Amino acid sequence: MLEWLKQPGFFGTHATVGADMSQLMATVFTGLFVIGWIQARRRRADTHHWMMLSGMIAMLAFFISYYLFRQLGVLAFEGKEGFGGSEALYRNVFIPLLIIHITLVVIGLVMAVYMIVLGFRAQLIEQGRRILSDRVLQTTWGKIGMIFGGLCVPVAVYLLYLVAADRFRMGRLIVWIGFLALIAIVFAVEMTIQRIWPDGGRRHRALGRFTMTIYCILFVTGTTTYTMLYLLYPGKIG
After folding, report:
1. Which listed residue, of 40, 98, 185, 198, carries a Cα 20 to 30 Å from 174's Cα?
2. CB-side exposure of 65: number of CA atoms within 13 Å?
3. 86 contacts 155 by C-beta, under 8 angstroms
4. Domain ranges within the chain, ordered by starting residue
5. pLDDT confidence of residue 76
6. Of 118, 112, 110, 116, nearest to 178 (Cα)?
């Protein structure tokens, strides 16, 4: 699979299959989010719910597999041979842009998990219609500790199994630690934000606008990175 993803891409640029898939899926995800946001503005709650939920789940699966497991699209950190432009352009434009992009990826992952959970918690279904509830939505550190502990136990058991079966790899440990760290950040975000917006419906609307903005900027930075790497200043394929 990994070797196939490293083959020349299908857009006719200097990109790999993995990079082209990344750009294609980013376009699809952003399109789903924009359509879902428009549906929310038109008060079509059911369509909004399924569009955003599908887009966020697909985006989560994509980012986890590509950025955590495969690390595709970030070859510039391995050396300038992946970038064909000048040293000044590489240091002063491309690397800062890439850092911004990866930072937004992390924020996007956190917000995707958070908004999925918040969406289910804040919704009510009345007479077959999905609506946002105005009730107070707050949780406690004790409940969060129980949930997080419940997630840590199976992960620890799985890692111990890998050690016992002589299949343990440091890369797998990093991935699972990253997963738990992501969940911990989501919980921390929840505990902080619920004090600002205790009203679940208001919180969902405000954070929805913020998250939508992040995804649009993420699409722009990702597209710009792709264009610089594989169209304007191609280096090696990888």
Report:
1. 98
2. 14
3. no
4. 15-137+198-238, 138-197
5. 44
6. 110
Length of the chain: 238
Separation of CA 189 from chain center: 15
**Whole-structure pTM value:** 0.77
Q: For residue 161, which of 150, 171, 173, 179 has the smallest C-alpha distance?
A: 173
Tokens representing 174 are: 């990093």
Cβ atoms of 189 and 214 closer than 8 Å? no
- Characterize 144-174 residue by residue with b for buried, 16 or more Cβ atoms within 10 angstroms of its Cβ, and e for exposed: beeeeeeeeeeeeeeeeeeeeeeeeeeeeee
Q: Quick one: pLDDT at residue 79?
A: 52
CA distance 59 to 118: 17
From the list 229, 233, 232, 235, the residue with the least C-alpha distance to 19 is 229
| pLDDT reported for residue 72 | 46
Contacts of 184 (CB under 8 A, 6+ apart): 148
Measured in degrees and rounded to the nearest 5, phi and psi for residue 43 equal 60, 35
The separation between the first and the last C-alpha atoms of the chain, rounded to the nearest angstrom, is 14
Q: How many angstroms separate the CA atoms of 6 and 72, rounded?
A: 9
User: Has residue 225 got a pLDDT over 70?
Assistant: yes
Which amino acid, one-letter code, is at 212?
M
Q: Quick one: CATH architecture of 15-137+198-238?
A: Up-down Bundle (1.20)
Residue 131's Cβ-side half-sphere holds a number of Cα atoms within 13 Å equal to: 8
